[in-house]
Design brief:
The complex is a heterodimer. Helices cover about 40% and strands about 35% of the residues of chain A. By secondary structure, chain A is an alpha+beta fold. Classes of the chains: A alpha+beta, B alpha/beta.
């Protein structure tokens, strides 16, 4: 029995309709649950970035990522473990204003968890905290055990690799070079 | 090129013509009528074959593509028209067959509203296509068609679906066709790593007992001659997967036969005795490997493939050579020493002798008793000079077909390998005849598979197609019956078939035919079939409980084949 580990799969894709489906069906076939998912435009215009976490063994995740990478609209897919990444999640906590004020020691709480207050009105207070799962969970635990949490939401993981290799920009440069070569060939062909 | 305002439908047809398409297999319906209307104007340039069921259109396109190397094209309507193509699309993905399926779709304002004959074609086909795209504007048609053909035909080929909304068919567009030969996110042929070429050659040069596995990648890359040169230079014996058959002629001295569950004894055993295993354009399917835990454990494995996701998927690889076999094989050959390996090659002979004595002789030259499936196949093959195209359905007829038919030319086998689709054969045989009109097409099927797509006899009638149909009739779903006999205590659950008079059905379609049951009439019946001008149905009433041997039981080791001699 191989041990399962949390992997972060990072995917760069064209921004076309139905791409998420193309990716998730590959997880489905291997019976992998997606733990978190985050999608947004990347730094490069027209290219979207997917960050997906899932528990898997390395053999499986390697094959899954190769099958994702093979899809026509996918530019690049790779996987990392937590050690290779700087990563973050963001959580929002909706609390009752009355109870929050009565609780006292608000400053201690905010400092201890490095949280922020986003909104205060007569009925509710909204806190924001970013961090790893354990950190956002710890604040949730403390609040629910004391004054209760009306609503709680945590985002999917966003992650950046620690390595110096910038895989996508290197790859795009390489593709650009190949395209240039190709159009050169075409010019040669049309001239000959 | 001067721009001209035309309808989306006309733009579609002009795009197809620009891609070199001359044959389309299809079936009209509500949301494809504008395309069919335009087709009426282009009937001199685009031959449309009206099938009897959309599944048949896809299999025909597959048969066409497999023998010709061109992209097969299917045209259907929305909803049920599109869903009927699913089996063929899945089959084409499994067997890497280049195919473009164009489906009509409800007008784009109605999308998502459960309109009449609306179905989510893209959602359904994404898992079984190389690319699926919905066209909502006439301006996208030329681009999408060109991209579809580029993606379907390059790299590891596969099926592409274009879902064409009706308003895009009827809208007007300034038509201008630009051929796509680059997609940023798609690299069809990976760069070849010279170090891997050197490592592969070094391993083969050091090997005492190298063995080569030939897959369809050789045919898809058009690397048949490169493969022969490679094998000959270093005297490497080879075995073939079902889809790799006919890459090497049957009588090529280093061709040791077929791999896998019903393959030949020698190639299977030698997989577990060789010291270096060279897999070319094949994907170590479980029907080839049997139990992976006992598969080629002693060998260093070199895997040549164009698809990175196939390398190491099932079998761990020592040297991975990514690239098109057309280019990687000769690069390795250039570094090989000229060798002769008479002892190693001679080691295949006892296995071949054993198989001949225990299996083949009984199958091909029985002294008495009812007709055997294998003898019918071999006699048909020989009567065509071993130069026909073999099309099979799935099951015992398929395994007997690929075991006993012989080949001289490449692209001579059309069969559903990966998906194992019963009903594939008859429409695929039609497509094969369109793709190779000058060749004799011999289609072997069973009484079960024949009835899954028997309505295509209508297409054969209408198109006056010269397809030779041989029904190996045992009144059983034979392959399942074989498993029931061997592994399920002879409990023949739902495998007994009461069959119609196939010759009478053929006659109703105006197709000639006869039934043969006696051995002494077989040669005459085959000659009559082959000499007949046009389609012919030969029903061979074979032994009811015939078995395909040798057999590697599912999940068993390729070393231990059942020979049925006990």
């Amino acid at each position: 029995m191989t041990t399962k580990k949390l992997y972060t799969v990072i995917i760069f894709s064209e921004n076309t309709v139905g791409l998420l489906n193309q990716i998730t069906i590959i997880f489905t076939r291997r019976q992998l649950n997606i733990e978190t998912l985050s999608v947004s435009p990347s730094a490069i215009q027209g290219i979207h970035k997917f960050t997906i976490t899932t528990f898997a063994d390395e053999d499986t995740i390697d094959k899954v990522v190769k099958q994702i990478d093979k899809r026509v609209d996918i530019l690049k897919a790779y996987y990392n473990t937590d050690e290779d990444l700087v990563y973050q999640e963001i959580a929002l906590y909706k609390l009752s204003t009355d109870l929050f004020i009565k609780m006292g020691a608000v400053e201690d709480l905010i400092r201890k968890y490095n949280a922020r207050i986003l909104e205060i009105n007569e009925t509710c207070v909204v806190l924001e905290k970013s961090g790893h799962y354990d950190e956002t969970q710890a604040l949730f635990k403390e609040l629910s055990e004391t004054i209760g949490v009306l609503q709680f939401i945590r985002s999917g993981r966003v992650a950046i690799t620690k390595s110096r290799v910038e895989r996508l920009s290197d790859m795009l440069a390489e593709m650009e070079r190949k395209l240039q070569e190709k159009s050169k060939d075409r010019v040669c062909l049309s001239q000959s | 090129m001067e721009k001209q305002k035309i309808t989306g439908s006309e733009a579609l047809l002009k795009s197809l013509i620009a891609e070199g398409v001359d044959t389309i297999f299809g079936y009209p319906g509500g949301q494809a009528i504008p395309i069919y209307d335009s087709l009426y104007d282009y009937r001199d340039q685009l031959k449309h074959v009206l099938v009897r069921h959309e599944q048949g259109a896809t299999h025909a396109a597959q048969g066409y593509a497999r023998v010709s190397g061109k992209v097969g094209v299917t045209l259907v309507t929305s909803g049920p028209g599109a869903t009927n193509t699913i089996t063929g699309i899945a089959d084409a993905l499994m067997d890497s067959t280049p195919m473009v399926v164009i489906a009509g779709q409800v007008p784009s304002p109605l999308l998502g509203t459960d309109a009449f004959q609306e179905v989510d074609v893209i959602g359904i086909t994404q898992p079984i296509t190389k690319w699926a795209y919905q066209i909502r504007k006439p301006e996208e048609i030329a681009w999408a068609v060109s991209r579809a053909f580029y993606i379907a035909s390059t790299g590891r080929p596969g099926p592409v679906v274009l879902d064409l909304a009706k308003d895009a068919q009827v809208g007007l567009v300034d038509f201008e066709y630009k051929k796509v030969d680059y997609v940023r996110s798609y690299q069809p042929e990976p760069d070849i790593n010279p170090d891997r070429i050197k490592a592969a050659a070094a391993l083969i040069n050091k090997a005492e007992k190298p063995f080569c596995l030939v897959g369809q990648g050789v045919l898809l890359g058009g690397a048949e001659e490169e493969l022969k040169a490679f094998l000959l230079k270093n005297d490497i014996p080879a075995g073939s997967t079902v889809l790799g058959l006919s890459a090497l002629p049957s009588d090529f001295p280093l061709n040791k036969g077929m791999l896998g569950m019903h393959g030949n004894i020698g190639p299977n055993r030698k997989t577990n005795e060789c010291d270096v295993l060279i897999a070319i354009g094949m994907r170590f399917d479980d029907r080839v490997t049997g139990d992976l835990k006992t598969y080629a454990k002693q060998a260093k494995v070199i895997h040549l493939d164009i698809d990175n996701s196939e390398i190491g998927k099932n079998v761990p690889v020592d040297v991975k050579v990514l690239g098109n076999a057309k280019h990687t094989i000769p690069m390795i050959t250039a570094l090989l020493e000229e060798r002769k390996r008479p002892e190693w090659n001679a080691e295949f002979e006892p296995d071949a002798q054993e198989e001949y004595e225990k299996v083949i002789e009984k199958e091909l030259s029985p002294a008495s008793g009812p007709l055997k499936m294998g003898e019918v196949v071999r006699k048909v093959s020989e009567a065509t000079g071993n130069d026909a195209v073999l099309v099979t359905d799935v099951g015992q007829n398929q395994m007997m077909g690929v075991r006993y038919f012989k080949y001289k030319r490449t692209r001579s086998v059309v069969t559903s390998g990966g998906l194992g689709t019963m009903g594939f054969g008859l429409p695929a045989a039609m497509g094969a005849k369109f793709g190779a009109p000058d060749r004799t097409v011999c289609f072997f099927t069973g009484d079960g598979g024949m009835q899954m797509t028997i309505q295509e006899l209508g297409t054969i009638m209408q198109e006056k197609l010269d397809v030779k149909i041989i029904i190996l009739n045992n009144n059983f779903l034979g392959m399942v019956r074989q498993w029931q006999e061997l592994f399920f205590h002879e409990r023949y659950s739902n495998t007994i078939m009461e069959n119609p008079d196939f010759v009478a059905i053929a006659k109703a379609y105006g197709i000639a035919g006869r039934t043969v049951e006696k051995r002494e009439e077989l040669d005459g019946a085959i000659a009559e079939m082959l000499n007949h001008d046009g389609a012919y149905v030969l029903v061979a009433n074979v032994e009811p409980c015939g078995m395909v041997y040798p057999m590697v039981p599912a999940g068993g080791s390729v070393t231990n084949m059942i020979l049925g001699d006990k």
